[in-house]
Prior knowledge:
Chain B: Keywords: Acetylation, Activator, Chromatin regulator, DNA damage, DNA repair, Nucleus, Transcription, Transcription regulation, Transferase. The complex is a heterodimer. By secondary structure, chain A is mainly α. Chain A has helices spanning 2-10, 50-53, 56-69, 91-94, 112-115, 124-136, 145-162, 166-169, 176-181, 189-208, 247-305, 318-335, 349-352, 356-382, 488-493, 514-525, 528-548; strands spanning 21-26, 84-86, 406-407, 443-444, 460-465, 471-476. Among the domains of chain A are: 41-74; 118-209; 258-306. Chain B has three domains: 19-85, SH3 type barrels; 179-206 and 400-490, CATH 1.10.10.10; 221-396, Aminopeptidase. The chains are: A mainly alpha, B alpha+beta. The interface between A and B is large, with 116 and 170 residues.
Amino acid sequence: MTRAGVAGARFRQRKLSTKQTLQVLREDQVEKIDDDPQRHVPKVETGVEKTEETEHHLQAAISASQAAAVGGKVAQIYIPTPDTVVSSLQYERLYSLRFSQPATYIRFSSTVEDCNGHAYCMTAEDDAFLSSVNEKKSASALCNEDRFEEVMTFFEQTAQSKQPFAMVDNAPVLTYDEMESFFDETISESARSFAKDIYPHWKSQRLRRGNKTLMPSLKFETGAETDDSDPYVCFRRREVRQVRKTRGRDAQSSEKLKRLRKELEDARQLVAMVKQREIMRRDILAVDRQLFEQRAKVKDAKRSLGIKGDDEDLVNQKPQKKKTSEATPMQRPASTQLRLSARPDGRSSELDLVLLSDVLTEKENEIQKEIDTKIIQHQRWNEGYIDLTRRPLTPPPEPNVDSGFRTAITEFLPTPPSSVSSEVMDLDGDDGIHDSGREGLVTFRYASPSLDGYCQSRPSFRRRVGRGGRLMIDRRGMRLQSTEAIDERIVDKFKYDHDDEDEEPTYAVDPYDTLNMRYRASIIGNSREQAAHQAAQIQAVRRAQEEKTVASSPAPAS
Amino acid sequence: MAPRESSQDPVGTPDPVEKGFATLATLRIGVKAFVDKDGEKRKAEILSIQQRKGQPYYYVHYEEFNKRLDEWIQAERIDLSKEVEWPAPEKPEKKKTGTTQSKNSKADSKVPKGQKRPRPGTSSEASATPEATSANIPGKAPRPSKAGGKENSESIAVVQTEVLDGSTRLDDEEIDLEDVQDAAAAAKAAAPETFSREEEIEKLRTSGSMTQNQTEISRVRNLTRIQMGAHEIEPWYFSPYPIEYTEEDMMYICEFCLSYFGELRQFERHRAKCTLLHPPGNEIYRDDYISFFEIDGRRQRTYCRNLCLISKLFLDHKTLYYDVDPFLFYCMCTRDEYGCHLVGYFSKEKDSAEGYNLACILTLPQHQRKGFGRLLMAFSYELSKREGKLGSPEKPLSDLGLLGYRAYWQETVIDILMEGRSEVTVEELSALSAMTTNDVLHTLQNLNMLRYTKGQHVIVLTDAVVAAKEKQKEKEKLKKRHNIDPERLQWKPPVFTAASRTWNW
């Protein structure tokens, strides 16, 4: 042993990590570096208690298996154990062939007590007593073993529940009268009749055992000091861990209990009401039946008496029916809200439903109305004023935003939309037909109007002044020229000639340039007619231009 | 490294013993005499004396034999021609001192005491490997350094618990093999006496099912014989069946509900009424050979108590001090037209603080040596796999338990290694088998498979192991070997509410 210790110290092994990868080798792949067999004697803790580890048979078995591990030839060694022998009792007599295995796995939750019938089991002595009792009885009133055990079980259980500490405090055995007063559903009528006969036997047995239970029972803790050292006291309960009590916890628990109580009460109420309803239904059925039978009798009577006609009393009166049918819808909503209520006028309830689209349009209309009133209001404020600041804030759109358009009788080359703005112009305007009085009005807009929806209408244009006094001509309703009119070569020529759509051409304009200032002044100074005139002029200019080129976007005219 | 100080054994004491010749009249409890056992003289301690029909009967425990071989003998088997050892006068006091001393000697002195008997497995490695090794194990650090008297016993108790902590912590960290042995041995050595009864009872209240308390386990067997199913069995150890049955020559146990009766007539009446045909729980596993039933100790109190009473007859260290609530019982049965016959069972804590996957395991004696123990163990690891946990059985193991487990572990580890991988970590082995890394390591060591060559550890599939495996395969061809088929396990790890898991009622 000392040698092994020395060797162990000399070849001090490195620490082995469980995460370390270890090669798995065969014996011939390993050099025999250490020929000291002692070094390989396992020094593993066994987990067996130390005082028992040295036991002869265990050591023999362990060394045998160790010898086998190093390749020795050893017969398997068993630890000797006391013998078991086949019982002299006949197994078949005690156990019967009752088991048939179900196809699925067994699920079972009954307890042993549930499966054992009456707890008391008769002894040979009981047998003798029982036969002596039966001798005196007539053949029809014999007490069988089951009855006997039932009674004994009842006595035992009653004694146990009424005198749980009989063993400790030497209580007197319960008298028969007491027993009789405790009769309950646990003991059947047929068994009760034997109770009086059996009682003396039970009492004598009980007395002989010092009023202890007749069937020996396990010793549980009694709370006595001797409990702890008594080896027969077993299956003690583990003391309940104290739950810390706080006011908050108390309140919580009481709240919980209250709620539970209320919910239970509600459930109970519900069930009670259901029950009531069902009882009423039953009554109705009974009444109906009675009515039917009575009528049948009446019918028979009428027939036998030869009374004809006037069968009114044989059927429920119409008006009556109506009344009930009218009454129902009145009650319905109160009783069952879950069910779709049928309308009293018989109209399908679907007609009542509001369509989503209707709601949406209504909403839209409302918004539009709101916008309109706002616009009118705004207009009223601005009446008689013109924003002449150099760079006016974007003004609200004037009414009849599209009224600035005038119809053009010309045909233009197709122009792609410059930009599709989200502000949708008022679409319901029959464009081109405008209030003549407003035709010349200069309208301020802050964005190019949408051209959607105007492609099919007559072309029109308008002039407007944008920020920084830019003057713009808007067109719309530009129709595609008939395809054959387009010279392909010309189209091809200008195919890449126009600017990118997104790019708005910018023109460097010096606002303090005299020319510009003068121009602005002239615009402001001019009357409406002048403006209209100018627009006409520009239009003319434009028209001339457009005829030659494909314009991509409304070009500023200034 | 746990020299096996014989002073700690209740049998055998290093203190000078009073010897002398005795007569029948002077024989008393505690005397150790030579007794004729199977044609051989063995030293045995008299644990109890009874008069039966005027004849004295002696209950003797043979030294170095398991308690299950304790027996009642008549006077003529006692060899009075040899000297007997008289019990020490103030035994408890003496014993305690002796224990403390020996422990301290183990702890600090590097020199083993002279009178110690050399034993296999004992070596002076602990002394040869100095502080460096022990520094690794937290439990070892606070060892008492001075050989004190009784006043040191308390601190030793502390050491003990810490050593246990240390050894459980070993699983995930680097392990020095020798340290493991050291610590384990130390833990083991410290175990028997340093656990006070109060401490142990408190510990049992919250976990475990095994006792190491001497007074708890060194009791005279109280039942004579039991009849169960088609067998008559001789009990091995004490079991707290109602004391009335100790007077009966035979106690009858119903094979299905495990109820017990002192009188044949009562038993027959019971059999006429009992309708149970299988353990009262849910079947969670079934193959051609066996079925497993899962039973909740809380719900089937009577059955589980009965089961524990039976198993206490055969498990020395099992304790029935507390009730069965916190355990689940897995009963293994064979089936025929009579019903499902209980063959063995194991219990398992619903929530084990120590990571045990099994508390008690028992194959009924009438069914032992048929491979049922292996199936029980395999099943317990199958459950651990399903839970995604590693597990180990609760300690202490019995001698049979140790052999059974070693056999199972060896087979399992070797099977994995024989699958043909070229390298593996201990953790992988552990994950594949649901065994703890400690158990894997110990198995490898035990088989002499863990070696150190060229500066690194390797696993060697030794020729002996390979040969044994081949032999086993041959045998399997002839006779079918039963295994647990995971596919047939219909089981989800049961979930318990905090209330039902705690140790209350």
